[in-house]
Amino acid sequence: MTLNSNQPVGIFDSGAGGLTVAAAVRNLLPEEQIIYFGDTAHLPYGDKSVETVRRYSLKIADFLLSKNCKVILIACNTASAAAYEAIVEHVNGKVSVINVIDPATELVAQNPKAKHIGVIGTKGTIGSGMYPKKINELAPEKQVVSLATPLLVPMIEEGFIFDDISNAVVKKYLESAELKGIDSLILGCTHYPIIKNQIRKYYDFETLIIDSSQVVAQKLKAVLSQESLLSSKKIGEHQFYVSDYSSYFKKLAEMFFEEDIDLQKVTL
Ligand code: DGL
User: Fold this and answer.
1) Is the CB of residue 24 below 6 angstroms from any atom belonging to ligand 1?
2) Neighbours of 212 (CB within 10 A)
3) Which of 147, 148, 181, 248 has the most CB atoms in a 10 Å sphere around its CB?
4) Domains in the chain: ranges and CATH
């Protein structure tokens, strides 16, 4: 079946983190209808095995295809590391698939200011070694160090942001020996932009903080434009699905999208 520009854009994450990417898509491409799926029943993905994250991701890809999406954007680093190739194979050319790691690594590889780069992310993302591998393929001269920061996702999903608890957790991680002397830090998890200012403050606003949401939205625009699938008129409302109801997710989605959200629960 041929795709057309009126079809929605499918975006998914384990939970609310991907809303940072979805919001960047909404800002850059306001005519696109977004179908968002947050796998809140299985969150966090970061501690799960590659096989498990792949299994969940393939089911979500099928769900987004059943909603008639014209493209799938994996707004989760952990799923991008574990399941990108599997999803590409699974959808078998029906739609394009975009991950969040490639646009971020391309961006940092091109930035002359980023010489000694730190990456923080879930255990799954950091354990995959994707960031150092991909950055060094493009820019072998750059030094890349990484640190798993597994407490951050549950902390953010529980709403511990801009308070003493989250400041202490952020400080504990960022003062780790692994990250000493970095000039830039990649937020290698789509949840982390939610606490970006806390992270910037830890560095007295001096370290370059790389949040990939905007560059991922630009990548989506480029892919849709190349496929002549950019929408010129918004046809339907954005739709938000979760695998388990979460009032915090609803609150964050309403904050990011500045509209009332009718959150729907689906079991995959
Ligand atoms: N936002 C997901 C990511 O970018 C969080 C993963 C998790 O659920 O642990 O990796």
Assistant:
1) no
2) 29
3) 148
4) 9-99+214-265 (3.40.50.1860), 102-212 (3.40.50.1860)
Please tell me the distance from the alpha carbon of residue 227 to that of residue 209, in angstroms, as a whole number.
Answer: 32
Quick check: CB of 44 below 6 Å from ligand 1? Answer: yes
* Number of Cβ within a 10 Å radius of residue 60: 27
pLDDT tens, residue by residue, 6-29:
999 999 999 999 999 999 999 999
From the CA of 228, how far away is ligand 1's center (Å)?
A: 31
pLDDT > 90: percent of the chain: 96
Give strand ranges (E) for the chain.
Answer: 9-13, 34-38, 71-74, 96-98, 116-121, 143-148, 184-187, 208-210, 239-242, 263-265
Average pLDDT of the segment spanning 168-190: 97
Give yes or no for residue 96 CB within 6 A of ligand 1.
no
Q: Active-site residue numbers?
A: 76, 189
- What CA–CA distances, in Å, run from 243 to 37, 60, 72, 227? 8, 10, 18, 31
